Design the sequence.
């Protein structure tokens, strides 16, 4: 009995020593980005997304478009940019939300318009980046243009609608203000025309229309249309230099005119001062003559009295 108790105590002591000698459990390793800047979340459209019916009806997007693959970067507030991803990328983002850090993802297809005071239907405009992918699904707000229309829209900032061809004006007439898609279909029967399709987005205003094309894409389209971009840039520089020269000349003329006016004012003041000094001199001379006459009269009287 005594031996068994001693054995139990020894076993307890051994277990205690083993517990103290065992290293502490390893801490969970932190991921490289934990504790750093937190990126905005990727929020996918759901079936009850309130923005999608507005976009679909305004641009007449077909029902075959995968709207559930659209995403934004915020849960609440103003959604500024809408991106499109493939189904595989969507699955990767959703299944690795807590273990994968993604900085940027998706193709930009729509951007919130700066003019929030417009109608709700035109709050989101089409983006040039995603129009090649989105175009097959869009059946509304498309304007077929010709080569001269494309050159006009790519070279002028806000051309008036009446500058476009009659066909383009007729298509723009029933459209309300907002984003549009301008499509150029090549005319193979014309050997001088551009033989490739061009698509770019724009904005239909009240009386003007403009294109929203990045600088490099604009240059590419103009080269396709046979426009010498270098010559146009040289002409723009020359016009800018001429305007600056005219502005400097006008400023110099204005300064010279102001200087002449100051000189004329100064000359008038000098003449007035000279006139005043001449008058004062004349008055002084007259006074001195009067005094001399009085003095000579007194002297003659004195001399006569002495003689008497």
Sequence:
């Amino acid at each position: 009995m005594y031996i068994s108790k001693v054995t139990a105590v020894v076993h307890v002591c051994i277990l205690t020593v083993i517990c103290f000698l065992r290293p502490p459990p390893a801490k969970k390793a932190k991921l490289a980005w934990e504790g750093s800047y937190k990126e905005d979340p990727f929020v996918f459209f759901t079936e009850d997304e309130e923005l999608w019916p507005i976009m679909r009806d305004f641009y007449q997007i077909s029902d075959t478009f995968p709207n559930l693959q659209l995403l934004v970067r915020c849960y609440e507030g103003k959604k500024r940019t809408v991106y499109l991803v493939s189904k595989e990328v969507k699955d990767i983002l959703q299944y690795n939300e807590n273990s994968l850090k993604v900085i940027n993802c998706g193709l930009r297809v729509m951007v919130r318009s700066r003019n929030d005071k417009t109608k709700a239907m035109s709050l989101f405009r089409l983006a040039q980046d995603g129009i090649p992918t989105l175009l097959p699904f869009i059946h509304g707000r498309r304007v077929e243009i010709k080569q001269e229309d494309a050159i006009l829209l790519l070279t002028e900032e806000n051309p008036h609608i009446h500058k476009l061809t009659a066909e383009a004006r007729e298509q723009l007439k029933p459209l309300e203000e907002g984003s549009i898609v301008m499509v150029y279909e090549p005319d193979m029967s014309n050997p001088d025309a551009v033989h490739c399709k061009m698509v770019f987005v724009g904005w239909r205003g009240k009386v003007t229309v403009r294109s929203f094309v990045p600088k490099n894409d604009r240059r590419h389209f103009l080269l396709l249309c046979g426009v010498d971009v270098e010559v146009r840039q040289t002409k723009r520089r020359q016009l800018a230099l001429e305007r600056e020269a005219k502005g400097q000349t006008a400023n110099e003329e204005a300064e010279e005119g102001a200087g002449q006016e100051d000189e004329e004012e100064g000359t008038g003041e000098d003449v007035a001062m000279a006139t005043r000094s001449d008058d004062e001199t004349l008055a002084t001379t007259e006074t001195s003559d009067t005094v001399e006459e009085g003095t000579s009269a007194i002297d003659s009287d004195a001399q006569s009295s002495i003689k008497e």
The chain has eight helices and nine strands. The longest strand covers residues 178-184.
